[in-house]
Structure formats: C-alpha cells, structure tokens
Give the backbone structure.
Amino acid sequence: MSDLHLADIHSELNQEPIRKGFGRGLLAAGKLDDNVVAACADLTDSTQMSLFKAEFPQRFVEIGVAEQNLVTVGAGLAAMGKIPFVSSYAAFSPGRNWEQIRTTICLNEQPVKVVGSHAGVSVGPDGATHQMLEDVALMRVLPHMVVIVPGDSLEAERATLAMAKDGRPNYLRLAREATPIITTDKTPFEIGKAYVYEKGSDVTIIATGTMTYQALLAAEQLYKDGIEAEVIHCPTIKPLDEETILKSVRKTGCVVTAEEGQVIGGLGGAIAELLSEHHPALLKRVGMYDHFGESGAPEELLEHFGLDAKHIRLAAHQVTDKKKK
Amino acid sequence: MPKRSLENLETIANDIREDIIRMLEHAGSGHSAGPLGLADIFTALYFDVMKHDPKNPDWDERDILLLSNGHCVPVRYATMAHAGYFPKKELLTLRQLGSRLQGHPERTRLPGMETTSGPLGCGLSQACGMALAMRMDNILNRWVYVVMGDGELDEGNIWEAAMLAGKEKLSHIIGIIDRNNIQIDGPTDDVMPLGDLKAKWEAFGWHVLEIDGNDIEAVIDACTMGRAVSDKPIMIIAYTVPGKGVDFMEYDFHWHGTPPNKDQAKLALHELRTLGGKIRGEHE
C-alpha cells in the first residue's frame, strides 16, 4: 500500500531487534516530555532502557530483580503525574506481577507503560521458562489496558512515542531477535489501528509482531498458488480495530491469524471472539496451541512450532479450500 | 489551622469508632477489629499530622496517605467524613451498589482516596514511586504516609519495597505498621511469626520507632520525629489493640473479618458512648 510507505519486501531488508526501537523511542519520548521516567528490574541493557538511563540518570530507577515492586512503583510514579515506562522480560513482567498490574494500574487507572521484552519462542536457547507466550492473554483481559505488539523496530519506536502521549495503562510486547524492518520512517502508527499491508480478496491474514513479515512472505507464495491474500498488520490487539478487520472479512469470507504466542486469549482468541459475534467466518489460527516452548535456535523453534510463512500459507489453503466446498 | 487539644482528638476518635460500628452493622459485612484499632492513628493523621484540605482533595502540596491494608477502609471513610471530605450520612452506603464507599477503597470513585487497595502488600511500593517522583521534582515539603497491617507483612512485595526505600534513602516515606497481632486465620505468631520486626526493618535501612498506636499523642510525636529524619525512610511500629473500644471485640481474631449484628452493634455503641461505662450514655 503506497500510503503506508512500506519497505519493498523483495529488496534486501535491514534487520534489527524490535526492542532496539523501543530504546530509541523511549529516549526520544524522554526528550519531548520531562515527565517521562523509567524503571527496570535488572535488565537495563537487554530491554534497551540503557539509552534513556545514560541521558536521564535522575529520571531512571533501578529496581533490582523485583517485578512486583517494579510495576507498583510505576503506579506510584504515575500517581504523581509521571509517565513511567517499566521494563523487564515479559516472562516476569507481566508474568509474575499480574495482580499488581490489575489493582494498582488498571483498576486504579494509572497510565503506567508496562514493557515486556524477549517475548515469544524466538528467545531461543533460554527455553520455555523465558519464552513468554501468555502475556497478551494476561494483559488483554484487563479492563482499561491497551495491548501493543509492534511488527518491527521502527514501529516499536513510533509505538513508544504514542504510548508516552496515551493517558491509559499500556502493555508493549517486544521480541529479542533481529526482525526484518518492513516499515519506513513515513509509515503511520496510531494506537488502535490495524493496517492493510497487502490487498487481496480470497483470504484475510491478520498478523501481529514478528509474524507480520512471515504473513507477507506467505502472501507472496499464495499469489503464486493463485490465492490473493489480504494481509492486515494488527499492532494493537486491544482495543481491536474491528472496522478494518470486519471490512476485510466481509470481502474474503475466511481468515488466518498469526502470532508468536498462545492462540488462547491472544490475537487468535480476540479475532475468534470478534468474528463469532459479528461476522462468523472460517478461521484458522497460527500460533502456540496450549503448550510451552523449549530450548533451540530461534529459527529452528519457529519452524518446529509452525510459526512461519510456510504454516501461514498452509492455513490459508485450508480455509480457502473449505470456503469453496 | 490551630492544633486541637488531645481531649478533642480523643472525642473525635470515639465518634469515628461509633460510625465504624454503625457502618459495618448496616453493611452486614466487612472488617471490625482493624478499623477500630486504627481509629486513633487515623484521627491523629487527619486532624493533626497531615497537611491536607478536605475542600481541595487534589491540592498539590498535600501530604499523601496510602491505606495499604485496604480492608481497614471503614476507619478511613469515617475519618474522612468527620474531616469534611463528604457528608457523614453517606457512610451508611458502605458496600452498597453504586456507592463511592466500596468494600475496598477505589481511588477513582472517591476524591481524597489516594489509591486503590485491598490485595495486600502494594502500598509501600506506591509510596516509593511517589517519593521518587517528589525527589525528581525537588519537592521537599510533602510526606507520604503508608498504613500497613502486620499480617500484610507476610507479602513479599512489602520487602521488595523495603529494600528499594532503604537503598534510595526515601526519607519522605513514613510507614505505620498496625501491630495488632491478629490476622484472619489467627494470631500472627501462629499464622506466620514476624520475629523481631524492629531489627528486620533496621536491617533494611529504615529508621524505626515503636509506639502505643492507641495513644494519639504518641502517634503525633512519632510522625513529628519521623519527619525530622532526613537520611532514611521511617517505620513506626504502632502496637494497637484490635477491636479497641469494644470490650467483646478486643484481642479476638474472630472479629478480624466480621461485622457486628444488630444486637452486638447496640452493645458496642452503648460501650463507646459511655466510654466503657465511665460516663452515663445520652440515650439511656
């Protein structure tokens, strides 16, 4: 789509970990607004908060390995008018501190920005304990919480800047490994908007985070197979851009979702809920099906668990075949 | 505002206890022992210690009070009503549908309620965030008071906050532990012994004071001393009598989470009105 100013996926794409964009975005947000502050639970480099810490040491708090305290201190900072970004690995925050997020941030309506890095199986060798797959479900179910899963580092940067201006509690999910950069400096990002990255009329593929690039690759293959896929990138999982999604599904009549996390309660769950209430349609969900990950190389694991272009393509064939019957 | 006499404060505390009994009896559920035991501390905080303005609850120079053990909120509601935050008649809406006085406090419903609490162990962390924000903004004339239960100290989150406050020397936090020795399942020593609390907090880098928490003057003095400490966070271990003021409730852990029924409330109110039989009740 030309107005989205996307990179040409046929060209050699630059790659960068999505979390790097968060680091740059936080630094930029800090320069724009003195009230932006940050706290981290002993993972300042990994979560890329180090850029902010170096520039604004007085506005950074080292919490130590204490994720319950991390988010609850965030609630206190927000109560005093600060815009706190609090980061750790997603497995620990929001993995360990869900109730604190529920009570002191969501019910208390404090605009704390919870940032969970190293989400998904692509964390790799660290294994299942560190491969957070349930974070989207945990955060999506909370009233007042906004859930954002950017598709590349540039989008993460824009999302971070948007979060600093958003008056609600936010959750930002980040991945560890280098991900192809599919957007450009001119690509729009707005919280709550889904974007049609590829137009088509046979099947709607809705993807988020690292899986959007895989969805674009799948769409190319599908085109060769004679199937025109519409690819929707959905970086905000809550609130869901129902209009954009339903408009596409009314046209295509069948849907594939793709995410690097549990389909139960995740993007797949959100889309299933939306469709069954508003426009029942054939649906196949690509993601983790009620099991944990394990150690391995990231690309190995993605293939092993069926989280790649190949499996999205397969799923698209399944729903389009069923539609014909 | 001129300081009130001790006698006046004690009368207020007694009125607050009466309101707690009325509220709980009317609501038919809620916690009795803790709120009664805390009435003197809350009277001291709202009527002497804290800088605040009931007509301007968001005043940006106010001191902040966090009630970490949210289940004790009846004492806060009663005290706030007496201080003029809202009409006293609203107290009887406690725990009713649509009421601003939720079973556990919610910030967004009631002006002057500084945070939402109930699930235990979260107040001190929020106080840390607030004190850190004040330090970032170079604010030196405000304090954050945090009331916690002793059973609440079982929560790990408390000790995470204790470490942070100690490390950052957050001297504008004044914690108050309601040391009444009871929790739902029984005496704290049976449920989970807390050991040498003073030594524990000191080991975490806190300045610790121990007082009789049912002595209003002692509460005021301890807070004054606390504000004078400039290199450490302050923890006041306030020894209180659970159910204070109502003989059949005092020291009995069964009253932790139970309200009085109609007859019990009548008895309790009689006792409070006559200050334990010392004076003749006006309704007799």
